[in-house]
Amino acid sequence: MRILLLFLLMLSAIAAQPAAKYRQGHSHIGEGFDEGPRQKPWEIAGAGSVSFPITHKNPETQKWFNQGVALLHSFWYYEAERAFRWCLQLEPDNAMAWWGLARSQAGGKRTKDFVQEAVKRKGTVSDRERLYIEADAANALPELGAKDESNRGRLVLERLVMKYPDDIEAKAFLALDTMMVDRIGTELLIREVLAKASNHPGAHHYRIHNWDGKDPEFALESCRRYGDIAPAVGHARHMPGHVFAGAGMWHEAAISMDAATRVEKKYMQERQTFPFENWNYTHNKNYLAYIQSQLGMEKAALSAGRQLLAAPRMEKRSMRSDSFPPHMEAQIIVLRTKVRFERWPDLLDGAGVDFDDSYIGDKLLKTFVEGLAYHGLGNEPKARKALADLEGMKDEIAKKDDFFLKSWHPVMVRELKGKLMLASGKTLEGLTELGEAAIAWAAMLHDQNDPPFYPSNIYDDLGRAYLKAKSPILAVAAYGKSMELVRNNAWALAGLTEAHLALGEKDKATAYYSRLLHVWGDADSPMPVMKTGLAADPKDVSPGPQRNYKRTTLSSLGPDLWEPFPSPKLDALDPKRKRVQLAEYKGRNVLLIFYLGQECAHCLEQLKAVASKKEDFEKRNTAVLAISSNKPEDNADSIQIKDVPFRLLSDERFENAKRFLSYDDFERLELHSTVLIDAQGRVRWAHRGGDPFTDFDTLLKELDRMNKIAE
């Protein structure tokens, strides 16, 4: 213990010493390159094909530029940036490579910095290319454009399209800029692009977005083609699912979303990435689970939630930024599915939901679903207590800068209050309150239908309440409104069947029942109304033909489950020049830390932090290994680190660093990486980049969770 203490004190003194910034894993070019991909690109055969000629010296630059643009058109910005960074590796002063890097960002400082570099070099390219640069500069650098215009870049793009009418890329990017704003104008631009390039990935993608939400029928042709045009791109498989779901084509929607998750899982396995690093994966799983529940596949939907709960975690908990982290998407899936299928006991025992009572968003959701569950089980006193607790959160929620919390809370209060009024015999008041909640829910659905995050479909609940109140005409109206909002919604189809039967309208009841049979034909269990004795054949009433989801084989696209990927080979030397490989640690977890040698002050701080947790890792069956490009004899003799309380490994040629993606191919420099390998030799979690990871308390929690999952 005394030796460890002396070691920590020594590291503290050394870490205070200055070190060259490049030795700390940071880019030589600029801080903008400390983010994003750090390994060279590969040819993505299934990304779609475009031709975007640019001024270049090296023919290879044009090849990677075209791949980058194709990926831009599918919103795969991370991989697009990788391609454009390689263009810059080949030609550091290529203006259009800098333009591509700027287009690969989501705004902010990196966009501005990259655009500025493109502007500096715009005199080296053609007039046509210069207009592309000026279009992005007008938006990112408003000081260069007309300050009284709301969309300066669009004006430049319009001039580009008019000046160079044969440039279909300009038309595609203009369609992206106008989609959902000028839907007819966008569609006409898309048609011009497709007239010259029928398989243009951007044109089909932007058409899907343009008609998503309302009028999805106009995008069905592109939905059927986009995934085939860019089969290796998860988003190209995913977006058609949006439109199919909006059109009530639940089987086709499930096929699209399932395909998307498989393509992305295959990518993660092959490229050593994680769900928390792939912006669209968790969204895919959430949407797929929603669609599966619409098809009555409750078990499959809940399985999606369990998969996300088991996935490794990195993000801090927040209600929503650009996307929910995996465990919060899992929470949404589980709550929505169990509420929909009325699994009240499961909701009360909290099975499959990772609630954090210190977080107001979790408190809100937990209290609400418990109120619904107590009401569903007939325990009205506890349901009223939950309602009181919900109402008591009003002031706390009002202080939060969270759109979702503020929009959900009043709807939850009204929904639960209306249901409790109905339960207490206040029929008119309860129906009025529930009706107001349904109206508010519908307005919220317009902004939050991606897929719905709110656990209930209140119009379906209102229809059920009208049926109980012996008002089938009003039930038809409520279920009809539900069908407007969610086409071919199975619960609404069942309710309309029942309501029309109550009205003596057997033909109408049979028509809805036949539609229900098609949607719910592969459900885990039938709805009660499906046992009424009505005679009908399944009938698909949707705007296009569908395949059957259950009978469609998708295994060739990728795995059904995300699993940790097999660890790359570890083959390094310890201070005594003994070879160290993972086989030596079979049956144990391994925390592998790539650091930048004894000259890196930040690295020494990291070693100090992990050394202080040595016993904590040992208790969790975890060996700590630290690896750098130091020679074995340096590790043995260095006064700074030779007494480190875990093994120091040597990777002089960066062979291990490259295998574990701890090496920057663009600038040929080593990176900081912290890699967690489980007892089965699979990489479960990793953090890589210009700065070392030091939050080992959080990592220990993740390790506890990982060990629990493995039990």
Keywords for this entry:
Glutaredoxin, globular, six-stranded mixed β-sheet, disordered N terminus, 711 residues, mainly alpha, Serine Threonine Protein Phosphatase 5, Tetratricopeptide repeat, 10 strands
Q: Whole-number radius of gyration? A: 29 Å
Number of helical stretches of at least 4 residues = 31
Which structural category do the helix and sheet elements fall into?
mainly alpha
- Let me know the average pLDDT: 90
Low-confidence stretches: 1-23, 317-322
CATH fold name of one domain, please? Serine Threonine Protein Phosphatase 5, Tetratricopeptide repeat
Beta-strand content: 5-15%
- Strand element count: 10
Kindly provide the name of the CATH class of one domain.
Mainly Alpha
Distance between termini? 32 Å
Give structural notes:
- This protein has 711 residues and is mainly α.
- Among the domains are: 2-17 and 563-710, Glutaredoxin (3-Layer(aba) Sandwich); 45-232, Alpha Horseshoe (Serine Threonine Protein Phosphatase 5, Tetratricopeptide repeat), CATH 1.25.40.
- It is 55% helix and 6% strand.
- The protein has 31 helices and 10 strands.
- The protein has a 6-stranded mixed beta sheet with strand order 1-10-9-4-5-6, sandwiched between helices. A two-stranded antiparallel sheet has the order 2-3. A two-stranded antiparallel sheet has the order 7-8.
- Helix 9 (183-196) packs antiparallel against helix 10, helix 14 (281-294) packs parallel to helix 16 and helix 18 (360-376) packs antiparallel against helix 19 (380-392).
- The longest helix has 22 residues, at 250-271.
- The radius of gyration is 29 Å and the shape is globular.
- Residues 1-23 and 317-322 have low confidence and may be disordered.
